[in-house]
Amino acid sequence: MATYGYTIRDAGGAMRQGTREGETDRAVVRWLQEQGYTVLKVEQTRVAKPRSPGGGFGGVKLSDLSIFCRQFSTMVDAGVSLVRCLSVLGEQTASSKLRRIVADVEAEVQAGQPLSKALSKYPNVFSNLFIGLVRAGEVGGALEESLQRLSVFLEKDMELRRKVRGAMTYPCIVMVVALGIVIGLVTFILPRFMTLFTELGMPESDMPVMTVMLMNFSKFLTTKWWVVLLMVVAFSFSFRMFVRTRVGRRAYDRVKLKAPVFGKLNHRICLARFSRTLSTLLISGVPILQALETVAGTVANEIIGDAILEARSRIREGDRIADPLQKSKMFPPMVVQMIAIGEESGALDQMLTKVADFYESEVDASLQSLTSSIEPVMIVLMGGAVGFIVISMFLPLVAIIQSLSSGGGE
Predict the structure, then answer these.
(1) What angle do CA 138, 139, 143 make, to 5 degrees?
(2) Exposed end of the chain (fewer CB within 10 Å): N or C?
């Protein structure tokens, strides 16, 4: 969890300041409002982080974390001490970054720190979900079970990401190849044709409109290419800065949910992640309020995260979880009804697991359908762009040939 500093006004109108740990700034704001305070400002405190042995370029792969959890669970279940487990895992992991991190965690645990506290030093490697499950396992005396569930969760998440990347690989390759062909034709082949037209005595004013447009575009790319590069860099930098703000992040997440074609896919991915994460936390014995706060920070969408935090707030007041989720209109009726049935029957974790399985299969079907639809569209667009260039280059040649033929006939 991160530490946030806040400025509030109490019921008497007095200004007060303080700090609180929370999954996100929204969670801290909501907690303060629940206490009856008027929130004036909440921002993450800037604490100088000590240099850690896990530094360096690159990250830790989900596959390495999954293997780490599974092996950790097996050794803990066999009665091996935590320090010995960490020592063995650090020696046999394939990731050099994870090896350095595990060595530092081993030193922290050997010095008397809880495992969850030692892992929380590396939020970029161990997520809030990871640390929350480890903490629940420590408190409940079932660390091996928590690690086993965490390994299964990471494998499911890794499989989902692999499917998304696999479905987008072919369209991206086709797009890059098409863009490369178009740029090559416009910047290398077209100028040679323009030189030929000039030598044959054809003025630019007599050229077809398509050819003139292509000529202007070619001149712009060959002489002002740095402007294009500058525009791309400026747009990328501005977009990154905008998305880092709270307003920009919310706007971008809303666009991702409302975008044509990809909006439904993103929504289903978020629902699958919500169901799988909440189910894993509840099965591990994490309290519902803490579980919802963790899920809101790991669902990777501010709009859905706000709906989850609103449900958490309503639960604190004694309401059921299904009702606020239904009012948010972010959760389909099937999800709401399954959660309601799970609450009534006391099997909410099992119902959420079924919802996660359903939406993961829906994501798989959507990806297959999207891939089969994108392929012909990309081919048609590529063919259209190349055809436009070829026609634009050959129209002047046809006009020159016709003029030569008519001149020879006379």
Answers:
(1) 30
(2) C
Single-letter amino acid code for the residue at 58:
G
For residue 125, give every residue at least 6 positions away whose Cβ sits within 8 Å of its Cβ, in sequence order, or none. 54, 59, 60, 65, 97, 98, 101
Contact 256, 301 (CB under 8 A): yes
Determine, yes or no, domain membership for 81. Answer: yes
Token pair in block for residue 180: 């490369």
What residues have CB less than 8 Å from 240, skipping those under 6 apart?
Answer: none
Does the pTM surpass 0.70? The reply is no
Longest dimension (CA), the chain: 103
Summarize pLDDT for 303-339 with one digit per residue, the tens: 888 888 888 888 888 888 888 888 888 898 988 899 8
Could you tell me if 119 and 69 are in contact, meaning their C-beta atoms sit under 8 angstroms apart?
A: no
Do 230 and 271 lie in one domain? The reply is yes
DSSP secondary structure letter of residue 14:
-
Q: pLDDT tens for residues 214-234? A: 888 888 888 888 888 899 999
Residues 171 and 80 in one domain: no
Question: Is 17 strand, coil or helix?
Answer: strand
Parent domain of 76: 62-126
Q: Give the DSSP letter string of 77-128.
A: HTT--HHHHHHHHHHH-S-HHHHHHHHHHHHHHHTT--HHHHHTT-TTTS-H
Q: Are residues 407 and 355 in the same domain?
A: yes
Residues 228, 194 within the same domain? yes
Residue 253, helix vs strand vs coil: helix
* Side-chain-facing half-sphere of 192: CA atoms under 13 Å: 4
**180, 275: one domain:** yes
Shared domain check, 264 and 176? yes
Contact between 221 and 187 under an 8 Å Cβ cutoff? The reply is: yes
Q: Please, where are the H alpha helices in 246-330?
A: 246-258, 262-283, 288-298, 302-316, 322-328
**36 & 69 share domain:** no
Same domain, 16 and 67: no
Q: Judge contact between 110 and 83, C-beta under 8 A.
A: yes
Q: Contact, 163 vs 364, CB < 8 A?
A: yes
Helix (H) or strand (E) holding 361: helix 348-409
Average pLDDT over residues 100-108: 89
Number of domains in the chain: 3
Cα dihedral sign for 49, 50, 52, 57? positive
The answer to whether position 119 is within a domain reads: yes
